[in-house]
Design a protein that fits this description.
Layout lengths: L1 E9 L2 E7 L4 E5 L6 H13 L19 E7 L7 E8 L1 E6 L2 E3 L2 H4 L3 E6 L4 H5 L2 H15 L1 H21 L6 H6 L1 H30 L9 E6 L7 H10 L1 H7 L10 E6 L2 E2 H4 L2 H21 L7 E7 L7 H11 L4 E6 L12 E6 L2 E3 L1
Parallel strand pairs: 3-13, 3-14, 8-12, 12-13
Antiparallel strand pairs: 1-2, 1-4, 4-5, 5-6, 6-7, 9-10, 10-11, 14-15
Length: 359
């Protein structure tokens, strides 16, 4: 359980030390005061990613050179865990005071699921949002996946830079292709594996909300011939001249599509707002269940972050939602007003006002 959070120049927080004593924590404040920023900090300490932006520079307080985040985690024994992240030009990450070079060694300590009003965009938005959701899910369960993904994206960026140069060096372009094929085939295979598990979990959850059966499925559409390393290599070779003409790599998991279908209808095109919002909620609850069932991560903290999303749920859905997330080690909720649900009777409450948190 997280027992301390430290922010320095993060979003609208200049400097804040927050001590926590409860597994259920509620943060109340008007919009724009920093409630979501708090959740974002916890999420970043788990994944080294933001759930709101892909640009790390957006996280630092305006006018500052960088930011610092730290946390103390009590694991139930006498040895607390300390995680620290600092961005000031370069990134520095520490575990128990020791510098860590690989992201996978840092993110293996906590699993975090965030529920946000923007979750509906996973269903209705562009394909990049669906890939990002899935990539984060897999990375938390299998940190080695994040390493493969980072290696792939680095090689992709480098190859594209060479492709866009005035006289692309064929040998340099070719040198990146084995990395793309090796890491890309891992990404495609893992996406396929985890989407299958995610689909079954969502189907099970959806059955709790309607007496009639709702046929839910996930359709994964990877780029052709990218699941096999050797076929992927051949594909990159065959398309090399075309890629040079276009100035970018025209195939790979960065272009994969994920379709969510309910009763044989593509939700982003034909689903109602209510259906899309319910499925997006189920996707996140399924993520909680997958984290809880994953044997490789049973010894890791499971943290749930809920950003003012329960007010729009009906009583039945809210009750089921609370039951699902109650399996978490610790939960953080944000509200504009104090909730009346019995679920929060033993919660610890905090007031958030203009980047300052008070008990």
């Amino acid at each position: 359980m997280i027992s301390r959070l430290v922010f320095r120049n993060f979003r609208n927080y200049s400097e804040q030390v927050l001590d926590l004593n409860s597994r259920l924590n509620v943060f109340i404040g008007e919009n724009g005061q920093g409630k979501t920023n708090l959740l974002e900090a916890v999420f970043f300490l788990s994944t080294l990613r933001s759930f709101r932006t892909s640009k790390v520079r957006d996280l630092k307080k305006l006018g500052s050179d960088g930011f610092y985040l730290g946390t103390k985690i009590n694991k139930g024994d006498s040895n607390p865990l300390f995680l620290e992240v600092e961005y000031s030009g370069l990134r520095r990450i520490k575990v128990n005071g020791e510098n860590i070079s690989r992201s996978s060694e840092f993110i293996r300590h906590m699993k975090v699921v965030v529920f946000s009003p923007e979750d509906i965009n996973i269903v209705t938005g562009n394909s990049g949002l669906r890939r990002r959701f899935l990539d984060m899910l897999i990375s938390i369960l299998e940190p080695s996946y994040m390493t493969a993904l980072n290696d792939y994206l680095t090689a992709l960026k480098s190859r594209n830079t060479v492709l866009r140069s005035e006289n692309p060096n064929i040998g340099t372009v070719k040198a990146y292709e084995r990395i793309l094929a090796e890491k890309g085939s891992i990404i495609v295979s893992k996406r396929k594996e985890f989407l299958k598990a995610l689909k079954e979990e969502v189907k099970s959850i959806l059955s709790n909300f309607s007496e009639r059966e709702n046929k839910f499925t996930i359709r994964y559409r990877p780029q052709p011939e990218t699941e096999s390393l050797e076929r992927y290599l051949d594909k990159l070779e065959q398309e090399r001249n075309r890629d040079i003409d276009k100035g970018f790599t025209g195939s790979g998991p960065q272009l994969d599509e994920i379709d969510f279908l309910l009763n044989n209808k593509l939700l982003r095109n034909y689903g109602s707002t209510g259906q899309c919002r319910l499925v997006s909620l189920c996707l996140k609850m399924a993520q909680v269940n997958l984290f809880r069932k994953n044997e490789a991560s049973l010894n890791r903290q499971l943290i749930v972050l809920v950003d003012d999303v329960t007010g729009e749920l009906d009583r039945q859905t809210r009750k089921f939602f609370f039951n699902v997330i109650d399996s978490a080690t610790q939960s953080f909720f944000t509200f504009t007003e104090k909730p009346e649900d019995e679920y929060f009777s033993e919660a610890e409450f905090f007031k958030v006002n203009n980047g300052i948190i008070e008990n």
